[in-house]
Each structure stands twice: as structure tokens, then as C-alpha cells.
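Crash report, auto-generated. Payload:
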Amino acid sequence: MSLNEFEHADVVLCPGGPLLLRGEHVIEDDKGGLHRTTRPVSAVCRCGKSAKQPWCDGTHKVIPERARP
Ligand code: FES
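Recovered output after restart:
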């Protein structure tokens, strides 16, 4: 499957980094808390090290490569 030039994926997995969500979504964190997206594109942490869970704060860039998602 491929997207035409006018389409965008709704979910993008960034190698070694976050999951990008396009559009409106509700994220459930590991404690059952719900978080609504507020931006056109939201980055969800996949490394577990962000201080702003469930959102990515860029911390994945400074952790060892083998510990990245
Ligand atoms: S994926 Fe970016 S801080 Fe976790």
C-alpha cells in the first residue's frame, strides 16, 4: 500500500523515537489517565523516559541507542 501525494498517514512510528499521531485522539497512559491531543500532530513517548508522559519531550535523543524504541 502506498499513499498518494495528498494523503498522510494518521500514525507514524519514528525509528528510535515517538509515535506521531495526526488529528484528534485520546491517549490512555499506564495509570489509566486519559489525555486528549491538542495539536495537529502529537508525539507520544515510546521510550518511557519523557518527563511529560504520555508525550515525547525529546529525551529519547539522549538515551543510549540500544534503549530506544
Ligand atoms: S520517545 Fe521521545 S521522550 Fe520518549
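Post-recovery validation: Residues 23 and 50 are 22 Å apart (CA to CA).
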